[in-house]
Amino acid sequence: MSDYLNEMFGLNGKVALVVGASSGIGAQFARALARAGADVVLGARRAEKIEALAKEIAEETGARTLAVSMDVTKADTIVAAFDSAEAAFGTCTIVCNNAGLAIPNWALDDTEEDWDITMNTNLKGMWRVAREAAKRMMAAGTGGSIINTASILGIGVGPMQTTYSISKAGVVQMTRALALEWQRFGIRVNAICPGYFKTEINAEFLDTEHGQQMVKMTPARRVGKLEELEAPMLMLASDASSFTTGVALPVDGAHTVRLA
Fold first, then answer.
1. pLDDT by residue (tens digit) across 18-53?
2. Catalytic residue among 82, 164, 196, 197
3. Is residue 164 among the annotated active site residues?
4. In the CATH hierarchy, which fold is given to the domain comprising 3-259?
5. Sign for the pseudo-dihedral over CA of 252, 192, 232, 177
């Protein structure tokens, strides 16, 4: 990387926390942040997976890594995770807020339990993490970047995704509201809205005939590659986005153009 690009996009000396880092988009983000020079803290419920991934990333990149147990539905685990991260590396100035789940169902078949689990993880869980991250950044006077993983279903809608779509629309609106309030503290809050990317959440569905038909109907006629999310995330994480906040950025091969 040239000095010019490294100065703009490099993350040397930064401390990044990736929530939901055990697989899929979160694991991809953790690898990318380490390659860009950040110390990386991996947070998730599945301790064995993130410990193995943290070791793998450290061996591959030479970055300092740390695995911390975190369940975004439990505030005390979030506080403990930030405490551990600060003790090891200092204030987390990059937070990839990525934990989430989906329970596909027709609206009339959704249960109150489905609703509560989805909202508590996808929306309230991200709110918990964002608030804790901002408190730490403000206390340290560092500013920083919070990147929420939303979805194109937070911008448009699709069948059998009513509850999930509402939760992700909430994430988009929360991103804007927090960006407005926290800009004066030097804290940027943005969202990435992925289109169809194959992860643990949707792999089974995307491999079905119906799933394949849906993919073929998108403008790109394919799912995204996880590495295609790295550059947008790194831009939002780095000083290159120092005056960019409150954005919900689709990374979707023009899918949302059709939804609009």
1. 999 999 999 999 999 999 999 999 999 999 999 999
2. 164
3. yes
4. Rossmann fold (3.40.50)
5. positive
Per the listing, tokens 């560092």 go with: 142
SS3 call for 14: coil
Structure tokens at 243: 């005056």
What sign results for the dihedral spanned by CA atoms 62, 64, 69, 73? Answer: negative
pLDDT digits (tens, 9 = 90+) for 222-246: 988 999 999 999 999 999 999 999 9
| pTM exceeding the 0.85 threshold for the entire prediction | yes
Domain boundaries defined on the chain:
3-259
Percent of the residues in the chain that have a pLDDT greater than 70, as a whole number: 98
Cα–Cα dist 52/194, whole Å: 26
Half-sphere exposure of 235 (CA within 13 A, CB side): 14
Other residues' Cβ atoms within 10 Å of the Cβ of residue 260: 8
> Are the CB atoms for 56 and 106 separated by under 8 Å?
no
CA-based torsion, 216, 217, 221, 223: positive or negative: negative
DSSP state for residue 108 in the 8-state scheme = G
pLDDT, greater one: 216 or 146: 146
In this structure, are residues 23 and 50 in contact, taking their beta carbons and an 8 Å threshold?
Answer: no
